[in-house]
Amino acid sequence: MSNTLATRILYRVILAVALVTILILTIIVVIAYVRGYTIPPIYRWIGVV
C-alpha cells in the first residue's frame, strides 16, 4: 500500500516539475520573441545551441 502511494506521489511530483519547466520555457521564449531575440540565453546556458 505504501509503495503504491509513494509511486503516485512521485509521479505527481515529476509531472508537476515537468509542467512548470515547460511553462517557464514557454514564457522565456515568448518574452525573447517579443523583445526580438532569436536565441534566448537560456538555450545557450543548457547547451542546446
Features:
2 helices; elongated
Low-confidence stretches: none
Span between N and C termini? 45 Å
Radius of gyration: 16 Å
Q: What would the principal axes of the Cα set say about the shape?
A: elongated
Structural class, by secondary structure, is mainly alpha
Counted by DSSP, the helix tally is 2
Q: How many extended strands?
A: 0
Strand content: under 5%
Approximate helicity band: over 70%
Largest sheet: none
pLDDT averaged over residues: 81
Order of helices and strands: HH
If you had to describe this structure to a student in words, what would you say it looks like?
By secondary structure, the chain is an all-alpha fold. The protein is built from two helices and no strands. It has a domain at 22-49. It is 82% helix and 0% strand. It is elongated. The model has no long low-confidence stretch (mean pLDDT 81).
